[in-house]
Amino acid sequence: MTSVEQVRIHAPGQVSLDRVELPECGPRDAIVEVHACGICGSDLSYIKLGGLAGPSGEPMPLGHELAGVVKAVGAEVTDVVPGQRVVVHPAEEIGSGSNEGGLAGEVFVRNAAKGGRLFPIPDDMPLTIAALAEPVAVGMHAAEQLHVGVDDKVAVFGCGPIGLAAIASLADRGLTDIVAIDLSETRRGLAKQLGASETIDPATQKVWRELERIHGTAPLMFGHSAATTGFIEASGSPKVLTDIIDRGGAGAHISIVALHYNPIPVNFLNVLMKELVIRGSIAYPERFSDAIDLLQRRDLSAMITDRFSINDIDAALEVLAGSKECGKVMIEMRQA
Predict the structure, then answer these.
(1) Quick one: 136-280 is in which CATH superfamily?
(2) Cα 124 vs. chain centroid, distance in angstroms?
(3) Which of 10, 24, 123, 165 is deepest in the core (most CB within 10 A)?
(4) Quick one: CATH architecture of 3-132+300-332?
(5) 270-293, pLDDT tens digit by residue?
């Protein structure tokens, strides 16, 4: 067996870099040397809880946004070969409560032979950039759930990595009227770099008045509303979601990608009277190849604001947990 370093949760708020044994590579499996792995906001939630939904009695490996180089494949794995540079689809096994995690020197990819687990990347794509594929796929799906066209006017609330990826995806599809709303000056700046046409600071500006100024107004029953036709809720703020439903215009499409753990009162009379279309957005059905293509077409490197080695995992987690100014925090295990 191979012994590797792996970041694991041991109890609520307790994370350590451990040395663990990887399983032997079976005929349907693969082993990937991890070069880069992003830290997700969900990882912070797992740490706070002490596991996927709380302590399970066993340490939980972390990391599901990863890219690296194939080290070994089983006899039935035919779509990749050792030495190939790949993005790893985490599925339900990697960084989600099983024995595998991407914040490690190497990762065991179970049942890689079924396909859709290891995605080759272009030779000129840095592995650190390739590790953005997972969050980019999430943002792409959130944008797709709007069902909007190039002439639509979209507002994105929350410019963390998922909101930024949604903005980049919308811009890549030809939309030019994208407004980004975030409290962080840094994140608003990143949104402009990645395709937002305007930004709003909700701490100093009246969001809905600004949306009316930027997008114009449209008739709404006995008054008017901002003429925004699509909203992406990536902030996780209950008030933002209820404001979108209460103040959004007739026929607006709403894509909810942020995690709202607690029930939120919703005025469904507004949903009915305005014929709002509300869709949830979870993960990335069949979007990994699309995300890699987007990373090849557009420079999304600005999403990565902080880089750490795996030995500095505690400092990396502190940055992500303590700062609203960061974008994607990336752990680099090896040089790409």
Answers:
(1) NAD(P)-binding Rossmann-like Domain (3.40.50.720)
(2) 23
(3) 165
(4) Alpha-Beta Complex (3.90)
(5) 999 999 999 999 988 788 999 999
